[in-house]
Amino acid sequence: MKEFNVTAVIWQEDEVYVSKCPKLEVASAGDTPQEAFENLKEAVELYIENAKTLGILEHFTRLSEKSNFRIF
After folding, report:
1. Cβ-count burial of 17 within 10 angstroms (0-12 exposed, 13-18 middle, 19+ buried)?
2. In degrees to the nearest 10, what's the CA dihedral of 32, 47, 67, 39?
3. Cα 5–chain centre separation
4. Largest alpha-carbon pair distance within the chain?
5. Phi/psi at 30 (nearest 5 deg)?
6. What is the 3-state secondary structure (H, E, C) of the chain?
7. Burial of 62 (0-12, 13-18, 19+ CB in 10 A)
8. Which is higher by pLDDT, 71 or 60?
9. pLDDT of the residue at 65
10. What pLDDT is recorded for position 44?
11. Residue 27 · residue 36 · CB < 8 Å
12. Residue 18 above 90 pLDDT?
């Protein structure tokens, strides 16, 4: 399995925590920072799986060579 390093940004908006991967423009949310992070991790994994299905994973491979992506 190929690993990608990505940055997760988490902030609070009212009663919810928002999480975002700016490089992929994928976002999620949760009731706690940890839940927001776990939800974002799942969203990024699904996003990359979809990229594989669509045959555009090479785009992420090129990005990984430049940015060293990794999903934690």
Report:
1. buried
2. 10
3. 9
4. 39
5. -165, 170
6. CCCCECCCEEEEECCEEEEEECCCCEEEEECCHHHHHHHHHHHHHHHHHHHHHHCCHHHHHHHHHHHCCECC
7. exposed
8. 60
9. 53
10. 92
11. no
12. yes
d(CA 27, CA 33) in angstroms, rounded, equals 13
The larger pLDDT score, comparing residue 15 to residue 55, is at 15
pLDDT in tens, 28-64: 999 999 999 999 999 999 998 898 898 887 766 665 5
Copy the structure tokens of residue 62: 């090129």
